[in-house]
Amino acid sequence: MTAKLLILGPSGRMGRALIEGAAGRTDVRVVAAVDRPEAAGLQIGSLTSTSDAAAGLDASDVYIDFTSPAATRSVAALATARKRAAVIGTTGLTADDEAALAELAKVAPIVVAANFSLGVNLVLGLVRTAASVLGPEWDAEVVETHHRAKRDAPSGTALMIARAIAAGHGSDYDAVKRHSRDGDIGPRPRGEIGVSAVRGGDVIGEHTATFFGAAERIEIGHRATSRSIFAAGALRAAAWVVGKSPGRYDMLDVLGFAH
Ligand code: NAD
Questions:
Q1: Rounded CA Rg of the chain
Q2: Alpha-carbon gap, residue 109 to 185, rounded angstroms
Q3: Cis upstream peptide for 154 (omega within 30°)
Q4: pTM, 2 dp
């Protein structure tokens, strides 16, 4: 079956990668593209992007959203009324945005992931195993680097990696997290999980988890060199999610990894 696809934000960095990726696939077909009113009117093959999200949702089986938290929330409300399947890649979501997605997941199947690459999803399993074998005696730190236009920090992927480390330690992430450091911070508490963000240039996304032992160090990292990996994962998720039972799924479900 070919899923009829709505792409949000076709003028954006990820939107362009999604349009390009969809052109080479038979399991999805872009039937609509919706953007902010100022960015609408883009010609995509025989399609023209509009700013009418309701009409785009009505015409499609599933939508892919890599936009902004405010757009994610407002489109999720429109999709809930239509029980429309969704693939959500927007990061930096607030509790209110998450609540809107939870409402949608009650009536439709949705895939939500801060990173759609196969490699990063494998890294999540690797860091969790490393943390559970090494324990909190090995200081764990995550460093991420992204292009200068990225708005949210730390990245959603860095937070997923840090949470996977906490799961491996058996600790409560919110109780042990340390997002960057400044001033007289004192000695590093045992079990703390640090996350630091670097911004510059056109870096698509780099993440490294380091485990510092007594006289040795382990690094597990991932570098994205093209947005096409995120687009390919999101398009695969869109084809996968149509027809599933309502609920919230992640990329590990799409890839068939046990978790
Ligand atoms: P971008 O700024 O280049 O593009 C955002 C797009 O959203 C633009 O086209 C903009 O016009 C559009 N938009 C804004 N409001 C809209 C609305 N109300 N309706 C429709 N479209 C709207 O940003 P980007 O670099 O493509 O990233 C977008 C999001 O995706 C960010 O949150 C980023 O962190 C996230 N991201 C996630 C992954 C992942 O694998 N999950 C990978 C890369 C980026």
A1: 19
A2: 44
A3: yes
A4: 0.91
Q: Which residues of 71-95 are buried (b: 16+ CB within 10 A; e: fewer)?
A: bbbebbebbbeeebbbbbbbbbbee
For the chain, what's the residue count?
259
| Helices vs. strands in the chain: H and E counts, helices first | 9, 13
Q: Distance between CA 243 and CA 231 in Å, rounded?
A: 21
For residue 72, the CA-to-ligand 1 centroid distance in Å is 9
Q: Which atom from ligand 1 is nearest to the alpha carbon of 15?
A: 26
Say whether 150 is catalytic.
yes
Mean pLDDT by 10 residues, the chain (259 residues): 96 97 96 98 95 98 98 98 98 96 98 94 94 98 98 96 98 97 96 98 98 98 96 97 98 84
Catalytic residue status for 4: no
Distance 181 CA to ligand 1 centre (A): 28
Which one-letter amino acid corresponds to residue 68? S
Give 193-251 pLDDT, tens digit per residue: 999 999 999 999 999 999 999 999 999 999 999 999 999 999 999 999 999 999 999 99
Query: Cβ(171)–Cβ(136) under 8 Å?
Result: yes
